[in-house]
Amino acid sequence: MPTHGSLTKAGKVRGQTPKIQGKVRQSPVSKLRNKNNFVKRFERRRPPGQKRPERGGRR
């Protein structure tokens, strides 16, 4: 099976990109995170997963 491009060019763009420091992120307090999850799942009745159902649907 042929390769897509030569292996000598592998990682070229990533090597040229300047390194920047990541942000220090704090996750929300666990009690608040649990409350948000409860609202999302049970009060708004959102299905699990990342695909949301389309609005409107069939009539």
Helical region count?
A: 2
Based on CA atoms alone, the radius of gyration comes out at 22 Å
Largest sheet: none
Instruction: Write the H/E string, N to C.
Output: HH
Number of strands: 0
N/C terminus separation: 50 Å
Poorly predicted tracts of residues:
none
Overall mean confidence score, pLDDT: 82
Helix content: 25-40%
Q: Structural class, judged by helices and strands?
A: mainly alpha
What is the global morphology?
Answer: flat
Beta-strand percent range: under 5%
Q: How is this structure best described in words?
A:
This protein is mostly helical and 59 residues long. The protein has helices spanning 12-16, 30-43. The longest helix has 14 residues, at 30-43.
Q: What topology emerges from the helices and strands here?
A:
Blueprint lengths: L11 H5 L13 H14 L16
Give a quick summary of the entry.
The protein is mainly alpha-helical.
Key phrases:
single chain; 59 residues; mainly alpha; 2 helices; 32% helix
